[in-house]
Amino acid sequence: DAKTTQPTSMDCAEGRAANLPCNHSTISGNEYVYWYRQIHSQGPQYIIHGLKNNETNEMASLIITEDRKSSTLILPHATLRDTAVYYCTLIRGAQKLVFGQGTRLTINP
Amino acid sequence: GAVVSQHPSWVICKSGTSVKIECRSLDFQATTMFWYRQFPKQSLMLMATSNEGSKATYEQGVEKDKFLINHASLTLSTLTVTSAHPEDSSFYICSASIAFGGNSYNEQFFGPGTRLTVL
User: Given an 8 Å threshold on Cβ–Cβ distance, is A96 in contact with B49?
Assistant: First the structure.
């Protein structure tokens, strides 16, 4: 079973920041928070991951709360191509990756 | 980034036939490969985990005799759907994993998926 909960769907205007929340209240000390996204009929695409500190890369920023029980993925300037299902998941070592239902993000023109 | 390919990208077959799907890590050696299945408007469901040279570990409810997995090398895993039926029609996705930091975490790279339609 997935150990994360996410809103089923979200909408965001093109050019605005998209903030996608994820709750993981039972996270263990050495579990990483990973975010993937899946554009329709494609394989999942890695976005970003973090353990404790906030992270940023060319795609997004990841904000992890101090207690690590929740996180937020931020797409700073959303485009139409960012429309996808976004999955938040937890991974520890060689542990298998379990996907929840994810958030269906729709970017509107 | 690491690239994972799948072949074929789509396949249509008759009921009762077997279909083989290949998953390759193109520019790295994968410690582990995973097979997922995804039905329309649903999330990915892990079917099995395979390590090179050993038997695959199947998730509960997945028939190992129906979904044969062969992991012949560190860059190739195959999934064979035997005696396929219409209910096996789905989107099959593989991923290949690399261990980082002395196995402190594994990063998975996903293939583009194979759409199987059984008539």
Answer: yes
CA distances from A73 to A78, A89, B108 (A): 12, 12, 19
d(CA A44, CA B57): 22
User: How would DSSP label each residue in B46-90?
Assistant: EEEEEETTSPPEEPTT--TTTEEEEEEETTEEEEEE-S--GGG-E
Residue range B60-102, pLDDT digits in tens: 999 999 999 998 888 999 999 999 999 999 999 999 987 655 5
Indicate yes or no: CB of B107 within 8 angstroms of CB of A93.
no
pLDDT on residue A109: 95
Using CB atoms and an 8 Å cut-off, which of residues 68-97 of chain B contact chain A?
Answer: 91, 93, 95, 97
- Report chain A residues whose CB lies below 8 A from the CB of B105: 32, 49, 91-93
Which residues, 6+ apart, have CB-to-CB distance to B27 below 8 Å? B2, B3
User: At A51, is the secondary structure helix, strand, or coil?
Assistant: coil
Read off the amino acid at residue A87.
Y
Q: How far apart are CA A7 and CA A105, in angstroms?
A: 10
